[in-house]
Design brief:
The complex is a heterodimer. By secondary structure, chain A is of the alpha/beta class. Chain A has one domain: Glutaconate Coenzyme A-transferase (3-Layer(aba) Sandwich). Chain A is built from twelve helices and 13 strands. A nine-stranded mixed β-sheet of chain B has the order 4-3-2-1-5-10-11-12-13, sandwiched between helices. A two-stranded antiparallel sheet of chain B has the order 6-7. Chain B has a two-stranded antiparallel ribbon with strand order 8-9. In chain B, helix 2 packs across helix 6. The longest helix of chain B has 11 residues. The radius of gyration of chain B is 18 Å and the shape is globular. The chains are: A alpha/beta, B alpha/beta. At the A-B interface, helix 4, helix 5, helix 6 and helix 7 of A face helix 3, strand 9 and helix 4 of B.
Chain lengths: 301, 265
């Protein structure tokens, strides 16, 4: 048995600046906040970030000025507000970005996960999304073509194979067998498309526990390079069955992200001002707050 | 009687909110046994109402990978755990958007929009102010996929001139682009079929693919609707009135589906 449990700082030290990283959250759920905070603390620059629907994690990285290229299908912080930093970066063109859709990003990961170099898709036609991709640097990733069998028109998408995929899961064993509770959006395709795969687990369980319900294992251990153990690791975003999102903190974040200067204050207080995630959790309100946010077992939130 | 915000004081029975008329009109567009991909907010409220009234065998899909949820608390977004409650299936994009929507088995895509033009093209990406300055808001997420691939699309949104412009500021999700047929555009789904606003219900002409008025909500003047529309609209000679929600529909909406008024305020 291989013990793959590592600290986040140890893992992030192995990520070179300029890497393509894929992030597993969706808007305000299961964000890899632990990893993103550490990427910011270690100032990993010029990152390419890909994600189906972006959320807080991507907004943090873009706001911190560490993203040079963004591949996204859309995204916001749901009712709490827009992804201000991502939107501002698009408005000021301070990074290279390509807008896709949830399904087309998922298909690009699927192609990568299957070891295919491309995949056909039926959506995107007659949209400004495709038009802009074809007119910009994204042109090397999309092509129109006919099916060689039926003659049907398709958009072909180049496979995405991120250097490292980061996914936040509820439970994993120390070998990296992961079980995700609740819907999984593009997690499986994204995880398996990665050249390297790192998971953040709320809880580390024994392999025997995994063996009791192997049908729930979404990511098998042999694909996982490292497991970061961090309870409340996705806060202020939610983890189904573990805890709810921290609505107060999300509102506070959005208020800061609205203005670049205020966003820097946020980073200072909640990222640079914290040695690690435990200190950050203390700033969020500590055990008392965690208790308030802890999920009720029937509803899962 | 209390005139609530959102009705703009225009409805005959002023205790009924415009959003309640919208949700009911949306629900009535869904048929029993259909498969519908819903966005959050009013589309979700309307699909739950349909399921609780005339369409108990409606299948509702959320792009994150949730089927037939029965939330007891209103969710703030698709990935909110509240929208996973009592679902019959949890999967992901590849299943819902790939093996259902892309496969061609989704009857209805039920969407919102920042902007919508006369050919049913949807913008959910950015807005431009009078001076042409761009402000990004979001992007497609699953919107483009749904608009491209669902057999028909229903859009639910507020009726304002700036939200219904001659041309959308960004064409995120295609309708009948340039008045062309879906086939000409290489789009597999049937395209927009209904637009439900807080002033009326609109449809699309079979030949020209341009938007036309189907019914006016009670108390709404035709002139006001035309004035709040940023493009020429086909107006029939005889304009029916959108039926008001029934007492039971109102009870379900207010007491069971959205008691906190998160989407119906």
């Amino acid at each position: 048995m291989v013990d793959k449990v590592k600290s986040v700082s140890e893992v992030v030290r192995t990520i070179p600046s300029g890497s393509h990283i894929a992030l597993g959250g969706f808007a305000i759920a299961r964000n890899v906040i632990v990893v993103v905070h550490e990427l910011i603390r270690q100032q990993k620059r010029d990152l390419t970030v890909s994600q189906g629907v972006v959320g807080l994690e991507t907004d943090l990285l873009v706001g911190a000025g560490l993203v040079g290229h963004l591949i996204m299908g859309g995204g916001s912080l749901d009712r709490f507000g827009p992804a201000h930093c991502v939107n501002r970066a698009r408005e000021t063109k301070s990074l290279r970005w390509e807008d896709y859709t949830s399904l087309s990003v998922c298909f690009r990961y699927l192609a990568g996960a299957l070891g295919l170099s491309f995949i056909p898709i039926k959506s995107l036609f007659a949209s400004e999304i495709l038009e802009r991709l074809e007119a910009g640097p994204g042109a090397s990733d999309v092509k129109r073509s006919k099916c060689p069998f039926t003659g049907e028109e398709y958009v072909l998408l180049r496979a995405l194979t991120p250097d490292v995929s980061f996914i936040h899961v509820q439970i994993a064993d120390s070998e990296g067998n992961c079980q995700i509770n609740g819907p999984r959006w593009g997690n499986e395709e994204q995880a398996k498309a990665g050249r390297r795969l790192v998971v953040v687990a709320e809880e580390i369980v024994s392999t025997e526990f995994i063996q009791r319900s192997p049908e729930r294992t979404i990511i098998p251990g042999h694909r996982v390079e490292a497991v970061i153990h961090q309870p409340f690791g996705a806060l202020p975003t939610s983890v189904y069955g573990c805890y709810d999102y921290d609505a107060d903190h999300l509102r506070l974040y959005v208020k800061h992200a609205e203005e670049p200067e205020r966003f820097q204050e946020y980073l200072k207080a909640f990222v640079f001002g914290c040695r690690d995630h435990w200190e950050y959790l203390e700033k969020l309100g500590g055990l008392r707050r965690m208790e308030e946010l802890r999920a009720e077992p029937i509803s899962g939130y | 009687m209390q005139v609530t915000e959102g009705t703009k004081g225009r409805n005959a029975r002023s205790d009924i909110r415009a959003t309640e008329i919208m949700a009911t009109a949306g629900a009535r567009e869904l048929h029993d046994g259909e498969v519908v991909v819903v966005g959050l907010g009013l589309p979700e409220v309307a699909s739950v109402l349909a399921k609780r009234t005339h369409a108990p065998r409606l299948t509702t899909l959320l792009e994150v990978g949730v089927m037939n949820p029965r939330p007891k608390d209103p969710p703030v977004g698709l990935p909110d755990s509240r929208s996973f409650y009592r679902a019959t299936c949890w999967s992901g994009f590849l299943d819902v958007m790939g093996m259902n929507l892309h496969r061609g088995v989704v009857d209805v895509g039920f969407l919102g929009a920042l902007e919508l033009d006369r050919y049913g093209n949807i913008n959910t990406t950015l807005v431009k102010d009078g001076a042409g300055k761009i402000r990004y808001v979001n992007g497609s997420a699953g919107g483009n996929d749904v608009a491209s691939l669902a057999k028909r699309v229903i859009v639910i949104m507020r009726h304002e001139k700036r939200k219904l412009p001659l041309a959308v500021a960004y064409l995120t999700s295609p309708g009948f682009v340039g008045g062309r047929s879906r086939q000409e555009l290489n789009l597999r789904g049937g395209g927009p079929s209904r637009v439900i606003t807080d002033m009326g219900v609109l449809g699309f002409d079979a030949k020209t693919h341009a938007m036309s008025l189907l019914s006016l909500h009670p108390g709404i003047q035709l002139e006001a609707l035309v004035e709040n529309t940023g493009f020429p609209l086909h107006i029939p000679n005889d304009i029916p009135t959108t039926p008001l929600p029934s007492t039971e529909e109102l009870r379900l909406l207010r007491e069971e589906i959205d008691p906190k008024g998160m989407h119906l305020k």
